[in-house]
Amino acid sequence: MARIVMKFGGTSVANLDRIRAVAAIVRREVDAGHSVAVVVSAMAGETNRLIELCEEAGPPAPALDARYVEHDAVVSTGEQVTSGLLALVLQNLGYRARSWQGWQIPLKTSSAHGRARISEIEDTMLGDAIDQGEVAVVSGFQGISPQGRIATLGRGGSDTSAVALAAAVKADRCDIYTDVDGVYTTDPRITKQARRIDRISYEEMLEMASVGAKVLQTRSVELAMAYKVPLRVLSSFDPPDAPGSGTLICDEEDIVEQNIVTAVTPDLNEATVTVHAIPDEPGRAAAIFTSLADAGVNIDMIVQSASREPGFANLSFTTKEADLDRAVEVLNGVKSEVGFNALQSDRNVAKISVIGVGMKSHAGVAATMFQTLANKGINIQNISTSEIKISVLIDSDAAEYAVRALHEAYGLDKAK
Amino acid sequence: MARIVMKFGGTSVANLDRIRAVAAIVRREVDAGHSVAVVVSAMAGETNRLIELCEEAGPPAPALDARYVEHDAVVSTGEQVTSGLLALVLQNLGYRARSWQGWQIPLKTSSAHGRARISEIEDTMLGDAIDQGEVAVVSGFQGISPQGRIATLGRGGSDTSAVALAAAVKADRCDIYTDVDGVYTTDPRITKQARRIDRISYEEMLEMASVGAKVLQTRSVELAMAYKVPLRVLSSFDPPDAPGSGTLICDEEDIVEQNIVTAVTPDLNEATVTVHAIPDEPGRAAAIFTSLADAGVNIDMIVQSASREPGFANLSFTTKEADLDRAVEVLNGVKSEVGFNALQSDRNVAKISVIGVGMKSHAGVAATMFQTLANKGINIQNISTSEIKISVLIDSDAAEYAVRALHEAYGLDKAK
User: Fold this and answer.
1) Is the same domain home to B249 and B368?
2) What are B3-16's pLDDT values in tens digits?
3) Which residues of A touch B80 (CB under 8 A)?
4) Neighbour tally for B51: CB within 10 Å
5) Does residue B111 lie in a domain region?
6) To which H or E segment does residue A375 belong?
7) ipTM over 0.90
8) Domain count across chain B
9) What does residue B337 show for φ and ψ, rounded to 5 degrees?
10) For residues A28 and A238, is the Cβ–Cβ distance under 8 A?
11) DSSP state, A44?
12) Assuming Cys at both sites, which of A168, A351, B237, B253 could form a disulfide with A267, CB separation 3.0 to 4.6 Å?
């Protein structure tokens, strides 16, 4: 008998039919004799509806320092409804079940409303309940602040709730049910050769999340890695009597047959900014990046090169497309302070990353990447690397072509 | 500076525009220097939407003994959303405000989910908060059970929440804002002569509620009477700068100029059942009424008369139209046990009541009623009385005619 935490996202609980399908998956684990806690998101669309109501109400007057406090009281009701309904459906099937709100567990958080961090989960009551055969249906995405108020964890927080709960109750496994049946070697919309990965390490999954693969929230993977919670991604749309095995995200050492490269991940939401002719003096780059950080603009892939004019340098960086306008605005504001000559921006770029823990011990991965792209006539604008990832920036028109070529070059299209 | 509890029902908070109108009423009291707690219902339609979701989920398996537990977790979110939104709107206007859920106050209830009774309200935290100038926006209709679960008080429970809270914080007044501007001498849809009553005693208001006047929940009036909370009914649709004074429901001794009759109240949702030829022996009537009570059928206005056959009696009673089919079914089930001959039922009846504390000290009120109806040729089928109420059962086609005649006969149409 194992303790299992299961998590179902908004599309998996979008209506009563879907909730009944979820109940069928849950009862399979209960019937197998496991102690089960289920973390649920709001029904698809509900969170947006509730956020819109809050926006219609308008923000608190700035002097009150109350931003997102009441927002959280309103928005958290989405998960509360789902948890009650799933508990009801399970009870209707004759299973003992109850809903747990964040404050009932209690799942304690910081007081940073709208983006609170989990500080502590008391596992006693809930752990005892599930070991006595009662299914715990937990409202995801929320907890209780030190002030006794409902605090939400921010978008995607239900994944984090599930992993934190799994760590707290020392669950044998945390199963994240979603609308895809696992993590793929690349985006299946780009190539039919994409294959589901059976096992992937936490580190690789983190790199994939950081470059835009949207299967799991980065924070939930970090938490799973820190507490060594085996995490499984699988589909809630598989028939309950023929479940898929999904993708297991686990410790590197639990993966027997390690690939050199595990995935090729494209990110099309990138943009570049080039700052021309910055005086080549200490402090100029710092002024640029401090002003961008103050404005909340995340930047990536920084390259500095000598300008044609002696004594001046050019600086390029990438940012998310959504942040580009703000980045340009911020830089124009510090133009005289920094003393640069001109700005140039480009939305027509894509970042292609190859990811694999095997890179640590195998040479030639980067060479294969550059050679493959060169053979296809694709120009590399920018390169960045981590211990287990190589990213290149290329023209976005070439992105799909590049992904297919790299997927083949690293042998990812071959069934194992 | 007074402590004031205000309560707004579902139509008063139906959308953000209405919630802003409510905020304008609330700020008027805050600007006057009062300590204010506001109890809110769910936005109109929300409670029904949530109940439908629960019904779609289906009831818990009977063996689980979990009826309405999860229902309450789901349905209570309606009020939670409104309290958060009203707090947000007040904060947007620059006022300090916060939402309070039942479990945060805490407002403690019994564990009878779906129809819980309030057992205790701790006033310390909330009372201190409002005295420090923070508006408390309280989710009505809900509290926390001894098991730490959310429990709802049943339909109309927000009125009860407001009165109980007013008693707990020793409020100087509890203002119930609704979609009518007070309590009327009779239904204004029946006669334009109906006048708003300035002051009415708790006892009269209770009699009016018991015969179907839907302005206030019976339980909330009982609670107000028990704790001597002055209760005011007024309209949330009056412009905030020209508020009406509504109707004050208070102790009899606080009403200086007492009317003999205060109101004429029609109830068209009545039906009669006549049981013919019951053997005139002890225990036969008891068998009838016990079986009806066991089936949850409320009965009223019982009349027993001798049958034409010696040794037999006829028994008539009224019930709510909605309960009639069940009543007939129950009685047919005990026909052989009771030994009656035939059943007869009639939906085409109305109960007309005249209500007034002045009856206690003035003779002739009943005589006026019977004479007035006789003059109009209206036949009385049945009569029942309390200390401050006389009800007659008549043909429902004559109901409006009777109400207008009685309203005039007791001088209720004369402006004072």
Assistant:
1) no
2) 999 999 999 999 99
3) 73-74, 77, 80
4) 15
5) yes
6) helix A365-375
7) no
8) 2
9) -60, -45
10) no
11) T
12) A351
| A85 closest CB neighbour out of B64, B69, B74 | B74
Distance CA B99, CA B108 (A): 17
The CA-based dihedral angle spanning residues A68, A70, A73, A75, taken in that order and rounded to the nearest 10 degrees: -60
Strands of B253-388 (E only): list them: 263-279, 299-306, 312-320, 342-355, 382-386
Same domain, B174 and B284: no
pTM for the model stands at: 0.86
Contact (CB, 8 A) for A129 and B108: no
How many beta-carbon contacts under 8 Å exist across A and B? Answer: 123
- Tokens 């920084």: give the residue: A302
Measured CA to CA, the distance from residue A37 to residue A99 in angstroms comes to: 10
| B53·A85 Cβ contact <8 A | yes
Residue linked to tokens 């921006």: A345
Query: Do residues A169 and A276 both lie within one domain?
Result: no
Q: Is B322 part of any domain?
A: yes
Q: Fill in the amino acid letter for B305.
A: S
Q: Which of helix, strand or coil describes residue A58?
A: coil
Cβ within 8 Å, pair A74-B80: yes
Range of the domain at B313: 264-409
Distance CA(A87)–CA(A115), nearest Å, equals 27
Q: Are residues B62 and B40 in the same domain?
A: yes
Residues of A in contact with B56 (CB under 8 A): 16
Q: A228 in a domain, yes or no?
A: no
Is there a domain that residue B370 lies in?
yes
The closest of A153, A119, A166 to A47, measured between CA atoms, is A153
**B394 vs B222: CA distance, rounded Å:** 29
Residues with pLDDT less than 50, chain B: none
CA distance B369 to B364: 9
Q: Which amino acid is present at A15? A: N
Q: What's the CATH code of the domain at A54?
A: 3.40.1160.10
How much is the average pLDDT of A257-272? 89
The answer to whether the CB of B85 falls within 8 A of the CB of B16 is: yes
Angle at B5 between CA B171 and CA B104, to 5 degrees: 100
How many C-beta neighbours within 10 Å does residue B52 have? 11
Chain A CB contacts of B63 under 8 Å are: 94
